[in-house]
Every structure is written in C-alpha cells, then in structure tokens.
Amino acid sequence: MPKSASLSLPVRGVTSETHPIPAPAALLQWTLMSSISSHLHLIDWHWLWLSVAAFLAGVLNAVAGGGSFLLFPAMLSMKMLPVQANATNTVALWPGQLTSIAAYRDAIRKNLRLAIPMAIAGFIGGTAGAVVLLNTPQMTFLHLVPWLLLVAAVIFALSGPVSRWLERRKTRNAAPSHPPRRLPVFLLTIVVCFYIGYFGAGAGFLIITLLSLFGFQNLNEINALKVVSTTMANGIAFLIFVFEGQVVWRYCLLAMVTCAIGGYTSARFARMIPQAVLRGLVVFIGLAMAAWFFWRNP
Fold first, then answer.
1. Are residues 236 and 251 located together in one domain of the fold?
2. Contact, 89 vs 109, CB < 8 A?
3. Does residue 107 sit in the same domain as residue 225?
C-alpha cells in the first residue's frame, strides 16, 4: 500500500506530466467550501441589511433621533415603490414612538389644556400629509427623497446650536413672561405635522423649537407636547397607510421587531457615547444618504 493518499494519472498526449487526485481530507474541504459558496449565493442580503438598518434605527431613535435616515433607504432597497417604502417605514417606527406617551403621561396630564390642541393639530396635519403623500406620483416622490433627506439632515445639524441658543434665551428671560400665544402655535404645529405625515424625519426638533420660540420654557412640558403632536400625526398616518394597503407587512413586521430590540438595548450606547457625537453621526448618515440619492436619481 502506498503511503500517499493521492494518485497520479497520465494526461493524454503528455506522457511526462501527471495530475494528482485530491486526498480525502482535501476533497472534503473543497466540497465544504463549494457548498458554503453555493448557499451564500442563495441568501438575499437585502433582508440582512434591512434587519441591521432597523436595529440601528431603533438605537438612534432612542438616543438621538434620525432612525429614518437608515430605515427608509433600507426599505427602498427591498424593491418597494417609494411611497410604499415611506409608508412602511412610518408604520414600523410608530410603535416605538407610542411608548413615549407612557413616559410623559404625568406631564401630559398636568398640561391637558395644551395637550388637546396639540393633539388636534397633529391629527389635522398628519392626515393632510399622509393623504398628499398617497396622491404624489411615485417618480415625483422619488425625486423629492434626496431633498427631504437633506432638509432633515440640516435640521439635525442645527439642533445642537439652536438648543444652546434657546437655553441661553431661557436663562436671560428668567423673569415671568407673557402667556404663550396658542393660536399661532396651533397653526404652525399643523404645518410641521403635515411634514410628519408626508415624510417626518427631524420633525420632533422642529416642534421643540417652535414651542420654545413662542414662550414655552419648561423642558418637560415642551417634550410632553412634542410627544403628543408627533405621535398623533404619525398615528393617523399609520392608520391611513394601513387602510389604503400601502404597508408591505413582511418587511414592516421584521423592522418593528428589530427596531424594538435596538431601542431596548440603546441605554448602554447612550451612556457610552456623548450626545454631540451621536448627533454628528446622525447628520453624517443623513447627508451621506441624501448624496447617494442625488447621485442615484436620474
């Protein structure tokens, strides 16, 4: 018996040259690698990207906001129509926003006379925005996407400086001021909530800025009113998109679950990474996605 586990056979027409037959171990390894390679070709990597993007979107929304910058492009990569991708993105993210109501329930109860008009404004604006979105041609909305992402990224970029300015303004105006003018706040909240129903990224900060500019000073009160209006606007958009059949549920349910997991595990990230770094990361992602869509769109 030969000691080598391979054999050599002559090649026809070449008497001096032989080709080895692989040994059993080498043959097994080659078969295994070939099997793995063939299975990798069967994997739809878009599903994996959607799962990762949804998880990261849950993390970002919980600690800084801006999860739509990742999740909406991931929805588009699943070969959905642009309006359907936006609707599915809204529905997937809304349950996470709904939990904020519970977090601010005491502040909402104390400011019920303000919360009710803000909820009505969210209902009106969100309804109008969702209806206009559903009546926007697919290609028109696709061409609007990079501009919407760019605007949202700029809003996030301004959030830090404007927040510091509002804090300085609050310190200078420590003396009691006149009551906030509620009618302008109500009307402008409808405008912001229209944007929420249509697209929505970065709108929470717009509500905070709006309330601060019109004389609201208590940060807990401002956040409670923001949560009421944005949750109502996204909630009515949620219902409209579902009833109109614009939600692709197999992608939506996956994103819901992974977003919730990302939001739940985000506390560790919030403690480890400074807020300024998180905001900078959100702005970078938003600008990068806007640039990609500008390059991609004809």
1. yes
2. no
3. yes
Reported as a single tens digit per residue, the pLDDT across 96-142 is 777 777 777 888 888 888 889 999 999 999 999 999 999 999 999 98
Q: Are residues 16 and 162 in the same domain?
A: no
Domain membership flag for residue 3: no
Which 3 state secondary structure label does DSSP give 245? coil
The set of residues, in sequence order, having a beta carbon less than 8 Å from that of 127 and lying 6+ positions away, is 197, 236, 237, 240
Amino acid at 151: V
In sign, the C-alpha dihedral spanning 82, 58, 94, 260 is: positive
pLDDT digits (tens, 9 = 90+) for 7-59: 444 544 544 555 454 556 665 665 655 555 544 454 556 788 888 888 888 87
Residue 2 in any domain: the answer is no
- Structural domain count of the chain: 2
Measure CA 149 to chain center: 11
Tell me: do 101 and 241 sit in the same domain: yes
Residue 116 placed within a domain: yes
CA dist., res. 240 & res. 93, Å (int): 15
DSSP-based three-state secondary structure for 35: helix
Task: Find the domain containing 26 and state its range.
Answer: 8-42
How many C-beta atoms surround the C-beta of residue 137 within 10 A?
10
Give a yes or no: residue 28 inside a domain. Answer: yes
Give the pLDDT confidence of 265-280 residue by residue, as tens digits: 765 665 676 767 777 8
Considering the domain architecture, whether residues 66 and 200 belong to the same structural domain is answered as: yes
Same domain for 151 and 214, yes or no, is yes
What span, in angstroms and rounded, lies between the C-alpha atoms of 229 and 105?
14
Residue 174 pLDDT > 60, yes or no?
no
Backbone conformation region of residue 202, classed left if phi is above 0, alpha if psi is from -120 to 50, else beta: left
Token pair, residue 295, equals 């390059």
- The closest of 243, 228, 258, 276 to 63, measured between CA atoms, is 276
